[in-house]
Automatic annotation (TrEMBL):
EC number assigned by the record: 3.5.2.3
Protein name (database record): Dihydroorotase
GO molecular function: allantoinase activity; dihydroorotase activity
Matches recorded under Pfam families: Amidohydro_1 (PF01979), DHOase (PF12890)
Segments forming domain Amidohydrolase-related: 281-415
Species lineage: Bacteria, Pseudomonadati, Pseudomonadota, Alphaproteobacteria, Maricaulales
Domain Dihydroorotase catalytic: 51-225
Keyword match Transferase: no
Keywords for the protein's UniProt record, in alphabetical order: Hydrolase, Pyrimidine biosynthesis
Amino acid sequence: MSGVLIRDGRVIDPASGFDETADVRIADGVIVEIGAGLEAEAGEEIVDATGRVVAPALIDLRARACEPGDGAPESLDVTARAAAAGGIGTLVLAPDSGDGVRRPEDIELIEARSLALPVRVLAAGLAVDGAGLAEIGLMLRAGAAYVGDGGAPIADAGLARRALAYAGGFDAWASLRPEEASLATGSVAHESDMSVRLGLAVRPGVSEAIAARRDAALAELTGAQLIFDRVTTAAGLDQVRAARRQELEVAATAPVTHLMFNAVDAGGLDPRYRLDPPLRGQADREALIAAIADGTIDAVVSDHAPVPAEAKDQPFAEAAPGSANLEALLPALCALVAEGRLDLVDALRVVTSGPADILGLEQGRIAEGAPADILVFDPDAPNVYGKHGLVSRAPSAFEGRRLHGRVLHLFVEGAIILQSED
């Protein structure tokens, strides 16, 4: 494979804090040299990144695909191409993808399918199956990135304890959505004066704090590594911080939708904003953004969840929850940077080195010897979401929103996966 020299970009490596104008040389699938004024070698392809940002390709820890299963409304190939279009080099399929990632055969199938896909695709396995444990050990041996509850809270504390203990025995992360099931079941909206007036079945924000406190206690009891999956409230963030003060081995993720929208958006009863977990109050949204800056949030996830258009085109309470978000992950974070709410290095950390550190991945950093998973993008480019077409055609909460950022080049293991006209 001939090499590539990326010239004169603003090179940002959130893992080390490096943020300088420099060149990056790629050869044999890895980054071999970083520095200013590197001389081109014979046969190298030159990529001019002047005025652009050169960063690690994004890593998304939670996207719900439609496989294993019938692939409706979106095949795994479409999901992977949408990830590439969004600058994502590594995509982790959620445990509840398709019919559920329940068996080692499901992990092996996804691994085999990934060989023909443009980006790295990993899979997380279900920790529980019905009222009992799933094949956790076999899935981890087959290569599961982590195990999780599939997005629905585990009501039985004893079952949650066994899942954490089993995963901990393999030194693997267990991801639990912090939600008190008795307060969440049947709800469609965050509890507020507005949602009560609208007559919606509501979910109080405290349900997240109650469950997070329980799960932290179980992690302490079992010695497990716990991911607080998609924290959405200030009260939930407080429990994450409390767990860290206890020196528990925990990580926390937040969904990109909840950084951009709040319960007022859902108050118009537009089914595009019917999400699970539901959109929260503005104070919660502000707390999530601040938690990225202070390091409480380790990773921002797309929480990509494609649903059929006909299932979304229903009255709000009857609409299927979910939104296609892969192509919005980078533009949404760039929009927060453009608004002055986040520093670009912090915004990139939670989609590069943050998730890489959780899973122990080599990618997610710009460093000599690291895999050449690299993104070149313009963070300032206006982006009206969907105006120029999208790979994923599933309904999205971001449709028509004014965001920022445009992907220009995506490299995965040194191969050019995506190249846009400047």
